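Known limitations

Files may contain more than one protein. Parsers should not assume a single record per file. Below, a two-record file is shown to illustrate correct handling: read the sequence, read the token line, then continue until end of file.
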Amino acid sequence: MVPLMDDATRDQQGARILIVDDEPLITARVAEMLAELGHVAVVAHDWSSALQAYDHTIDLVLLDLIMPKVDGFKLARLVRARGTIYTPIVFLTGRADDQARQKALEAGGDDFLVKPISTLDLRVRVTAMLRIRRLTEALHRQATVDALTGVGNRHALETALQQRVAEGGRYRRPWSLALFDADHFKRVNDEHGHEVGDDVLRAAGETFRTRIRTCDLAFRFGGEEFVVILPETTGEGALVLAERLRAEFARLSASTAAGAQTLSCGIAPVIEAGETAKAVLARADQALYRAKQEGRDRSIVAE
């Protein structure tokens, strides 16, 4: 699941386009042309920095075919493996032969730009590819976004968790999972009605959509429970973020008829490979249970 911008926001801000090329002069020139077209360029000069820069905010990838260590063909496959939503890839190349085109398509590419790149060619390719991106986003939203709160649904959470567990095992990078629960939510429904309860859940959704980092992912786990996946985050860092989110929810929910509400949170840091998604969720749930037992309105980090 990924947070998606609406069309008005995207039109106002322009697209975020990742340029991957080992020649700085080329990336600088392409970035300049993209800026003239109203877009934001994110530049990487090798495969490693490209993978670090690539996330759900990237709308299009412009990828050089010939690079040292990991070429464009292999990098395209790595990008495709990481993505939870389809991001168009346009190859930058001095080779326009049929064999290269066929190989690029098999690697997951969508189109070509032949160097030297003209502004007109760039405009045409970028416009076409961003249309594909928007159509894909619309379909993705219907399938993966919780309609009431605007965060990811349960299906999207399961997909994202499996991906995070696989990546954590492969690259041995720390991450954390935070499980939030709205305190005394049944009381809100009983005393104020389900419409007010929905307003409280919308406040939670707004909190998680607008106050997490760009690398984080938020989901509605079910009922009044929410999950946030925090990449590259230890338990200590996750605790700081969880406290900020809880404070923001209290502020936003204060405008509902139910008044200011609170969240309890259980945090499961993941620092070792091999733990399953189910096990991570179970640890977060145990920590959440402790937070409830100790008086609610607090965050607890699992042992």
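...continuing to the second record:
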Amino acid sequence: MLIVGIAGGTGSGKTTVVKKVMEVFPNDEVIVIPQDSYYKDNSAITLEERQKINFDHPDSVEWRLLIDHLKHLKKGIPVEMPVYSYLTCLRAKETINIKPARVVLVEGILILTDPDLRNILDIKVYVDADADDRLGRVINRDIIERGRSVLMVLERYHDTVKPSHLQFIEPSKRYADIIIPRGGENQVGIEVLISIIEKHLLKTKS
């Protein structure tokens, strides 16, 4: 099984890159494990406290569970992936059954910040984008998908997103094997990633 980590700042275009990679391979060959599903369960604290959580800090993720799930998949064992809600900042009672596949794309802003996770990634990718472009995408996404106002998004961006990006996410770029500038718009960069995955898959077949 080939494990590909795809990291990058909030709004950098990671989801677009993942989508374009998945379009190339059959559904049963590639699965996606989003880092967002592994945010810690915060049911022990109030909603007001949960809404203050910095989701751009490595401490917000349950890395051990994510790593254990990847190790299980590598052994051919299905896993029950958590479902996380940004509206309640809680894990749902339901889980998603994930079956092993030949390629696993692990996608999320903090993927390259954890050394234990990096150790089990076969290919490490960083999707890069201009800060202004990222902010524009974050505003659109958080208003539409997460029910936030423009003011709430801008406050969060300046209080947690930007500082955490500079402290944790941007420095993690140095661990990347491949850097894709301009995010999902960089067709050449995406094709390079696809060709590398294809090459690995051909090796495992032979």
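Parsers that stop after the first record will miss the second one. For reference, the second record is described as follows. The longest helix spans residues 150-169.
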